[in-house]
From TrEMBL:
Domain of life: Bacteria
Lineage per the UniProt record: Bacteria, Pseudomonadati, Bacteroidota, Sphingobacteriia, Sphingobacteriales
Xref: SUPFAM superfamilies: FAD/NAD(P)-binding domain (SSF51905)
Protein's name in the database: Pyridine nucleotide-disulphide oxidoreductase
The keyword Oxidoreductase belongs to this UniProt entry's keyword annotation: yes
Amino acid sequence: MDTKKSSKQQKTLKTYRTVIVGAGPAGIGMGVALKDFGVYDFVILEKGLIGSTFLKWTTETRFLTPSFQSTQFGLLDLNAVAINTSPAYSSGKEHLSGPEYVHYLNRVVYEFQLPVHEEREVMTVVKRDRDFVLETVDAYYVAEYLIWSTGEFQFPNDRPFPGAELCIHNSRIGSYRDLLGDDFTIIGGYESGVDAALNLAMLGRETAILERGTVMDSKSQDPSVTLSFYTKQRLDETTAADGIRLEERTEVKKVTHGGNGAFRIHTGSGYYESPTPPILATGFKGGEEQIHDLFYNTGGRPQLNEWDESTRTPNLYLAGPHVMHQNVIFCFIYKFRQRFGIVAHRIATQLGMDTDAAVKLYRRHNMFLDDLSCCQEDCKC
Ligand SMILES: Cc1cc2nc3c(=O)[nH]c(=O)nc-3n(C[C@H](O)[C@H](O)[C@H](O)COP(=O)(O)OP(=O)(O)OC[C@H]3O[C@@H](n4cnc5c(N)ncnc54)[C@H](O)[C@@H]3O)c2cc1C
């Protein structure tokens, strides 16, 4: 790394070979992978604290993918971002809370001596010839390679229809205990919506879930498009007394004020009234929207080549849940971590490193997914 004072703007000028933006599981896992592939000249810039997304989860939220200390037998914990690490082991839990996962990420940063700079928000990115110039409040970072891993949680899809501003997006709820009222309407019946209903039911509140498709009926095996078995099981175990009502094939068109301070939720065929602000469980956009002009976009997803590099801007890589190839969606940690090795390998080979040993290691641990045909739905029983 090289540091100078930029005379014109009075900002420090810092030069690295690679900059990673975002210190969530994707940014941290990418940092470990770069080191494993022999790339050491990099920094991770994080606008908040390490794992800050998980500190924003509602208090009641837990991981739905289970963690298990299977590492000893060569099976990586589903929520691990680096080989020989395990959130189950670091927390003693199977379904971690947000803060417990942050503890794990901090352990990884410590063990692998990752150069994370917290409270460094990247405000702009410009490509100048071969280099990227990233601006933070007090510095310019210049880098040949940029890995964008800013996730999606901090970019909620909170304006999906007119009147959405009258609702509250589930990512902005600190704790379900803080919500006033006994009767709630949740718009969206995938993981976040059902999780909200289950948590509210545990507090004795009634909920209606309005879902444009179906909640339970999907034939898909892929938890990226259908409710996980963990959540289905929890929903199956509820009874009528829990007061969760599913309104399937119900698409919300707009929300307006109703009578007596209520909220009117309009669908194609009528309306529902909710005494409390409707809860939006309508998902997230991608953090790469912050630098959207550096990507071509297809169907709301950034276009990437076989190394997860932008097809528009060479040497710009995307890591995390918005990576998608053909129909394969990488929105869980156990999925997107399998691309860390691909990106690290690409950068390392361009820098002339010998990567054979690292590729073998990553393949052995299912962390080097270069053949997407393995992700088809072929579970026999
Ligand atoms: C309620 C809920 C439950 C979930 N449960 C599971 C589960 O059980 N299993 C699973 O695999 N996945 C789960 N997920 C998804 C998982 O949390 C995400 O896939 C994961 O957090 C993505 O990691 P990331 O590092 O890409 O993004 P994030 O964790 O969001 O990290 C991105 C980081 O980038 C930083 N950042 C953003 N913009 C900038 C900027 N301009 N400059 C600097 N830093 C910036 C942010 O502060 C943040 O720390 C869940 C998600 C939610 C919402």
